[in-house]
Design goal:
binds adenosine-5'-triphosphate; 4-stranded parallel β-sheet; alpha/beta; 7-stranded mixed β-sheet; Rossmann fold
Protein backbone atom coordinates (compact mmCIF):
# COMPACT_ATOMS: atom_id res chain seq x y z
CA UNK A 1 0.00 0.00 0.00
CA UNK A 2 1.53 3.28 -1.14
CA UNK A 3 -1.19 5.83 -0.51
CA UNK A 4 -3.98 6.04 2.10
CA UNK A 5 -6.68 8.54 3.04
CA UNK A 6 -7.82 9.69 6.47
CA UNK A 7 -10.96 11.52 7.56
CA UNK A 8 -12.96 12.38 10.68
CA UNK A 9 -16.72 11.85 10.53
CA UNK A 10 -19.89 12.15 12.64
CA UNK A 11 -19.76 14.09 15.91
CA UNK A 12 -16.34 15.51 16.80
CA UNK A 13 -14.55 14.25 19.88
CA UNK A 14 -11.43 15.39 21.74
CA UNK A 15 -8.47 13.33 20.55
CA UNK A 16 -9.42 13.12 16.87
CA UNK A 17 -6.45 15.38 16.02
CA UNK A 18 -4.09 13.13 17.95
CA UNK A 19 -5.41 10.17 15.98
CA UNK A 20 -4.90 11.88 12.59
CA UNK A 21 -1.38 12.80 13.70
CA UNK A 22 -0.62 9.17 14.55
CA UNK A 23 -2.01 7.98 11.21
CA UNK A 24 0.11 10.47 9.26
CA UNK A 25 3.31 9.87 11.22
CA UNK A 26 3.00 6.07 11.14
CA UNK A 27 2.25 6.08 7.42
CA UNK A 28 5.16 8.40 6.65
CA UNK A 29 7.51 6.17 8.61
CA UNK A 30 6.37 3.25 6.44
CA UNK A 31 6.73 5.15 3.14
CA UNK A 32 2.99 5.49 2.70
CA UNK A 33 1.62 8.77 1.37
CA UNK A 34 -1.41 10.27 3.17
CA UNK A 35 -4.25 12.46 1.94
CA UNK A 36 -6.51 14.04 4.56
CA UNK A 37 -10.10 14.67 3.47
CA UNK A 38 -12.04 17.61 4.90
CA UNK A 39 -15.52 17.34 6.44
CA UNK A 40 -15.70 13.55 6.51
CA UNK A 41 -17.48 11.85 3.63
CA UNK A 42 -18.49 15.24 2.20
CA UNK A 43 -14.85 15.98 1.38
CA UNK A 44 -14.36 12.47 0.02
CA UNK A 45 -17.22 12.93 -2.46
CA UNK A 46 -16.12 16.46 -3.41
CA UNK A 47 -12.48 15.35 -3.63
CA UNK A 48 -11.57 18.04 -1.12
CA UNK A 49 -8.36 16.55 0.19
CA UNK A 50 -4.85 17.68 1.03
CA UNK A 51 -1.55 15.77 1.16
CA UNK A 52 -0.41 15.49 4.76
CA UNK A 53 3.24 15.20 5.74
CA UNK A 54 4.60 14.58 9.21
CA UNK A 55 5.16 18.35 9.53
CA UNK A 56 1.52 19.18 8.75
CA UNK A 57 0.43 17.46 11.94
CA UNK A 58 2.76 19.35 14.28
CA UNK A 59 1.21 21.07 17.29
CA UNK A 60 -2.18 19.42 17.05
CA UNK A 61 -1.95 16.57 19.57
CA UNK A 62 -3.28 18.82 22.36
CA UNK A 63 -6.08 20.49 20.41
CA UNK A 64 -9.76 19.64 20.76
CA UNK A 65 -12.11 19.27 17.78
CA UNK A 66 -10.68 18.12 14.46
CA UNK A 67 -8.60 20.25 12.09
CA UNK A 68 -9.92 18.13 9.19
CA UNK A 69 -13.41 19.12 10.33
CA UNK A 70 -16.32 16.72 10.30
CA UNK A 71 -19.78 16.50 8.78
CA UNK A 72 -22.89 14.39 8.55
CA UNK A 73 -23.57 13.56 4.92
CA UNK A 74 -26.87 12.34 3.49
CA UNK A 75 -25.41 11.78 0.03
CA UNK A 76 -22.88 9.24 1.27
CA UNK A 77 -25.77 7.09 2.50
CA UNK A 78 -26.65 6.49 -1.17
CA UNK A 79 -24.78 4.04 -3.47
CA UNK A 80 -24.28 6.93 -5.94
CA UNK A 81 -22.56 9.05 -3.28
CA UNK A 82 -20.24 6.20 -2.33
CA UNK A 83 -19.45 5.50 -6.01
CA UNK A 84 -18.38 9.15 -6.37
CA UNK A 85 -16.13 8.84 -3.33
CA UNK A 86 -14.60 5.57 -4.58
CA UNK A 87 -13.90 7.08 -8.01
CA UNK A 88 -12.04 9.97 -6.37
CA UNK A 89 -9.96 7.59 -4.29
CA UNK A 90 -9.13 5.37 -7.27
CA UNK A 91 -8.15 8.35 -9.42
CA UNK A 92 -5.49 9.24 -6.85
CA UNK A 93 -4.29 5.69 -6.31
CA UNK A 94 -5.60 5.63 -2.73
CA UNK A 95 -6.09 2.01 -1.73
CA UNK A 96 -6.88 2.32 1.96
CA UNK A 97 -8.85 4.67 4.21
CA UNK A 98 -8.77 5.33 7.95
CA UNK A 99 -12.16 6.53 9.21
CA UNK A 100 -12.24 8.16 12.64
CA UNK A 101 -15.83 8.33 13.86
CA UNK A 102 -18.75 6.48 15.40
CA UNK A 103 -21.02 3.64 14.33
CA UNK A 104 -22.69 5.62 11.51
CA UNK A 105 -19.29 6.44 10.03
CA UNK A 106 -18.28 2.78 10.27
CA UNK A 107 -21.47 1.68 8.52
CA UNK A 108 -20.60 4.01 5.63
CA UNK A 109 -17.00 2.72 5.58
CA UNK A 110 -18.16 -0.88 5.47
CA UNK A 111 -20.43 -0.19 2.47
CA UNK A 112 -17.65 1.70 0.68
CA UNK A 113 -15.34 -1.25 1.15
CA UNK A 114 -17.86 -3.93 0.17
CA UNK A 115 -19.08 -2.07 -2.90
CA UNK A 116 -15.77 -0.76 -4.22
CA UNK A 117 -12.96 -2.86 -2.75
CA UNK A 118 -11.36 -0.01 -0.79
CA UNK A 119 -9.58 -1.27 2.34
CA UNK A 120 -10.94 0.51 5.42
CA UNK A 121 -9.98 0.62 9.09
CA UNK A 122 -12.01 2.44 11.74
CA UNK A 123 -10.79 4.26 14.83
CA UNK A 124 -13.59 4.81 17.36
CA UNK A 125 -13.86 8.60 17.78
CA UNK A 126 -16.97 9.43 19.78
CA UNK A 127 -17.57 10.79 23.27
CA UNK A 128 -20.40 8.29 23.83
CA UNK A 129 -18.25 5.16 24.41
CA UNK A 130 -21.08 3.10 22.95
CA UNK A 131 -19.14 1.06 20.39
CA UNK A 132 -19.01 -2.68 20.88
CA UNK A 133 -15.53 -4.23 20.96
CA UNK A 134 -13.55 -1.50 22.67
CA UNK A 135 -13.33 -0.61 26.34
CA UNK A 136 -12.87 3.05 25.47
CA UNK A 137 -13.53 5.37 22.55
CA UNK A 138 -11.44 8.44 21.73
CA UNK A 139 -12.83 11.47 23.57
CA UNK A 140 -14.97 9.72 26.14
CA UNK A 141 -12.64 10.14 29.11
CA UNK A 142 -12.13 13.82 28.30
CA UNK A 143 -15.89 14.35 28.06
CA UNK A 144 -16.30 12.73 31.49
CA UNK A 145 -13.55 14.95 32.93
CA UNK A 146 -15.32 18.02 31.53
CA UNK A 147 -18.67 16.96 32.98
CA UNK A 148 -17.15 16.17 36.39
CA UNK A 149 -15.44 19.55 36.55
CA UNK A 150 -18.74 21.27 35.78
CA UNK A 151 -20.67 19.21 38.35
CA UNK A 152 -18.08 20.02 41.03
CA UNK A 153 -18.77 23.70 40.45
CA UNK A 154 -22.52 23.17 40.48
CA UNK A 155 -22.20 21.32 43.78
CA UNK A 156 -20.58 24.35 45.41
CA UNK A 157 -23.51 26.55 44.54
CA UNK A 158 -26.08 23.81 45.27
CA UNK A 159 -24.72 23.42 48.80
CA UNK A 160 -24.60 27.16 49.40
CA UNK A 161 -28.27 27.57 48.55
CA UNK A 162 -29.87 24.29 49.61
CA UNK A 163 -30.75 23.40 46.06
CA UNK A 164 -31.38 20.18 44.24
CA UNK A 165 -29.75 20.24 40.80
CA UNK A 166 -30.59 18.07 37.82
CA UNK A 167 -27.59 18.08 35.50
CA UNK A 168 -28.12 16.80 31.98
CA UNK A 169 -25.12 15.23 30.26
CA UNK A 170 -24.76 13.92 26.71
CA UNK A 171 -25.91 10.41 25.82
CA UNK A 172 -28.95 10.04 23.57
CA UNK A 173 -28.76 6.25 23.59
CA UNK A 174 -26.04 5.49 26.11
CA UNK A 175 -25.55 6.27 29.78
CA UNK A 176 -21.76 5.84 29.96
CA UNK A 177 -20.95 9.53 30.43
CA UNK A 178 -23.75 9.92 33.00
CA UNK A 179 -22.70 6.88 35.01
CA UNK A 180 -18.99 7.74 35.22
CA UNK A 181 -19.74 11.39 35.90
CA UNK A 182 -22.17 10.40 38.63
CA UNK A 183 -19.62 8.18 40.36
CA UNK A 184 -16.73 10.64 40.04
CA UNK A 185 -18.78 13.65 41.16
CA UNK A 186 -20.46 11.77 44.02
CA UNK A 187 -23.95 12.37 42.63
CA UNK A 188 -27.00 11.44 44.64
CA UNK A 189 -28.59 9.73 41.64
CA UNK A 190 -27.92 8.82 38.00
CA UNK A 191 -30.66 8.32 35.40
CA UNK A 192 -29.66 6.57 32.17
CA UNK A 193 -31.42 5.24 29.05
CA UNK A 194 -30.35 1.63 29.69
CA UNK A 195 -32.46 1.26 32.83
CA UNK A 196 -36.11 2.26 33.28
CA UNK A 197 -36.44 5.44 35.31
CA UNK A 198 -38.78 5.16 38.24
CA UNK A 199 -39.63 8.69 39.34
CA UNK A 200 -41.51 7.37 42.37
CA UNK A 201 -38.40 5.56 43.55
CA UNK A 202 -36.34 8.72 43.13
CA UNK A 203 -38.96 10.74 45.00
CA UNK A 204 -39.07 8.09 47.74
CA UNK A 205 -35.30 8.23 48.13
CA UNK A 206 -35.28 12.01 48.21
CA UNK A 207 -38.07 12.05 50.78
CA UNK A 208 -36.33 9.75 53.23
CA UNK A 209 -32.75 10.82 52.71
CA UNK A 210 -33.09 14.47 51.89
CA UNK A 211 -35.73 15.33 54.41
CA UNK A 212 -33.63 13.81 57.21
CA UNK A 213 -30.23 15.32 56.69
CA UNK A 214 -29.49 16.63 53.23
CA UNK A 215 -30.83 19.80 51.74
CA UNK A 216 -28.87 19.92 48.53
CA UNK A 217 -27.78 17.44 45.92
CA UNK A 218 -27.04 16.51 42.36
CA UNK A 219 -28.90 14.12 40.10
CA UNK A 220 -27.18 13.32 36.78
CA UNK A 221 -29.57 12.73 33.88
CA UNK A 222 -28.44 11.35 30.51
CA UNK A 223 -30.14 13.32 27.72
CA UNK A 224 -31.80 10.16 26.34
CA UNK A 225 -33.20 8.98 29.66
CA UNK A 226 -36.72 7.63 29.42
CA UNK A 227 -37.76 9.99 32.24
CA UNK A 228 -37.62 12.69 29.54
CA UNK A 229 -34.37 14.60 30.14
CA UNK A 230 -33.39 16.83 33.06
CA UNK A 231 -36.17 19.44 32.66
CA UNK A 232 -38.93 16.83 32.66
CA UNK A 233 -37.50 14.90 35.59
CA UNK A 234 -36.98 18.09 37.60
CA UNK A 235 -40.55 19.15 36.95
CA UNK A 236 -41.93 15.82 38.12
CA UNK A 237 -39.84 15.88 41.29
CA UNK A 238 -40.59 19.54 41.97
CA UNK A 239 -44.34 18.86 41.92
CA UNK A 240 -43.83 16.43 44.83
CA UNK A 241 -41.76 18.91 46.83
CA UNK A 242 -43.15 22.40 46.25
CA UNK A 243 -41.01 23.80 49.09
CA UNK A 244 -37.70 22.78 47.56
CA UNK A 245 -35.78 24.74 45.05
CA UNK A 246 -34.82 22.60 42.06
CA UNK A 247 -32.55 23.79 39.25
CA UNK A 248 -31.56 22.34 35.89
CA UNK A 249 -28.23 22.67 34.08
CA UNK A 250 -27.73 21.20 30.62
CA UNK A 251 -24.00 20.79 29.95
CA UNK A 252 -24.52 20.32 26.20
CA UNK A 253 -21.68 20.84 23.76
CA UNK A 254 -19.13 21.90 26.37
CA UNK A 255 -18.64 18.13 26.73
CA UNK A 256 -17.42 17.79 23.15
CA UNK A 257 -14.91 20.63 23.25
CA UNK A 258 -11.64 21.24 25.02
CA UNK A 259 -8.19 19.73 25.04
CA UNK A 260 -8.06 15.95 25.05
CA UNK A 261 -6.74 14.62 28.34
CA UNK A 262 -3.58 12.48 28.45
CA UNK A 263 -5.58 9.25 28.38
CA UNK A 264 -7.34 10.20 25.13
CA UNK A 265 -4.15 11.46 23.49
CA UNK A 266 -2.43 8.15 24.22
CA UNK A 267 -5.47 6.10 23.20
CA UNK A 268 -5.82 8.05 19.94
CA UNK A 269 -2.10 7.70 19.20
CA UNK A 270 -2.20 3.95 19.75
CA UNK A 271 -5.31 3.51 17.63
CA UNK A 272 -4.11 5.65 14.72
CA UNK A 273 -0.77 3.81 14.72
CA UNK A 274 -2.49 0.40 14.83
CA UNK A 275 -4.89 1.32 12.02
CA UNK A 276 -2.08 2.11 9.60
CA UNK A 277 -0.10 -1.02 10.51
CA UNK A 278 -3.28 -3.06 9.94
CA UNK A 279 -3.84 -1.56 6.47
CA UNK A 280 -0.21 -2.26 5.63
CA UNK A 281 -0.71 -5.91 6.67
CA UNK A 282 -3.69 -6.17 4.33
CA UNK A 283 -6.40 -6.06 7.01
CA UNK A 284 -9.70 -4.39 6.21
CA UNK A 285 -13.23 -3.70 7.48
CA UNK A 286 -12.13 -3.70 11.10
CA UNK A 287 -12.23 -1.28 13.98
CA UNK A 288 -9.20 -0.77 16.19
CA UNK A 289 -10.29 -1.25 19.78
CA UNK A 290 -8.65 -1.65 23.16
CA UNK A 291 -9.62 -4.59 25.31
CA UNK A 292 -7.94 -4.93 28.70
CA UNK A 293 -5.40 -2.32 27.58
CA UNK A 294 -4.37 -4.39 24.55
CA UNK A 295 -5.05 -3.36 20.95
CA UNK A 296 -7.75 -5.57 19.43
CA UNK A 297 -9.16 -5.68 15.90
CA UNK A 298 -12.94 -6.02 15.75
CA UNK A 299 -14.86 -6.61 12.49
CA UNK A 300 -16.82 -3.45 11.62
CA UNK A 301 -19.88 -5.63 11.22
CA UNK A 302 -19.72 -6.54 14.92
CA UNK A 303 -18.79 -3.07 16.17
CA UNK A 304 -21.84 -1.65 14.38
CA UNK A 305 -24.34 -4.37 15.12
CA UNK A 306 -23.84 -4.76 18.83
CA UNK A 307 -23.87 -2.17 21.56
CA UNK A 308 -21.47 -1.76 24.40
CA UNK A 309 -23.27 -2.66 27.61
CA UNK A 310 -23.37 -0.77 30.88
CA UNK A 311 -21.60 -2.51 33.73
CA UNK A 312 -24.10 -3.70 36.38
CA UNK A 313 -21.30 -3.29 38.91
CA UNK A 314 -21.05 0.46 38.22
CA UNK A 315 -24.82 0.80 38.56
CA UNK A 316 -24.66 -0.91 41.93
CA UNK A 317 -21.78 1.35 42.93
CA UNK A 318 -23.82 4.48 42.26
CA UNK A 319 -26.64 3.15 44.43
CA UNK A 320 -24.31 1.97 47.17
CA UNK A 321 -22.45 5.26 47.46
CA UNK A 322 -25.21 7.80 46.93
P1 LIG B 1 -21.46 9.94 16.54
O1 LIG B 1 -21.54 8.65 17.33
O2 LIG B 1 -20.52 10.92 17.15
O3 LIG B 1 -22.80 10.51 16.21
P2 LIG B 1 -21.38 8.69 13.95
O4 LIG B 1 -20.25 8.27 13.08
O5 LIG B 1 -22.27 7.60 14.46
O6 LIG B 1 -20.76 9.56 15.13
P3 LIG B 1 -23.42 9.60 12.12
O7 LIG B 1 -23.94 10.97 11.83
O8 LIG B 1 -24.40 8.55 12.52
O9 LIG B 1 -22.26 9.78 13.20
O10 LIG B 1 -22.67 9.05 10.81
C1 LIG B 1 -21.66 9.84 10.17
C2 LIG B 1 -21.81 9.74 8.68
O11 LIG B 1 -21.64 8.37 8.28
C3 LIG B 1 -23.21 10.10 8.15
O12 LIG B 1 -23.36 11.48 8.00
C4 LIG B 1 -23.23 9.37 6.82
O13 LIG B 1 -22.55 10.09 5.83
C5 LIG B 1 -22.45 8.10 7.15
N1 LIG B 1 -23.41 7.05 7.44
C6 LIG B 1 -24.13 6.85 8.56
N2 LIG B 1 -24.97 5.82 8.46
C7 LIG B 1 -24.80 5.33 7.20
C8 LIG B 1 -25.38 4.28 6.45
N3 LIG B 1 -26.33 3.49 6.97
N4 LIG B 1 -24.95 4.07 5.18
C9 LIG B 1 -23.98 4.85 4.65
N5 LIG B 1 -23.40 5.87 5.31
C10 LIG B 1 -23.79 6.11 6.55
Amino acid sequence: MKHIGVLTSGGDSPGMNACVRAVVRTATLNDIQVTGFYRGYEGLMENDGVPLTRYDVRNIIHRGGTFLQTARSQEFRTPEGRAKAAANLRAQGIEGLVVIGGDGSFTGAKFLSEEHGIAVMGCPGTIDNDLFGTDYTIGYQTAVDTAVEAVDKIRDTAASHNRLFFVEVMGRDAGFIALRTGIAAGAEGVLIPETPTDINRLVGYLKTDFQKKRRSGIIIVAEGDDGGGAYDVAQKVQSEFPDWETKVTVLGHTQRGGKPNAFDRILASRMGHAAVLALREGRTREMVGVQGNQIAYVPLEQAIKHHATISPYLLELVDALS
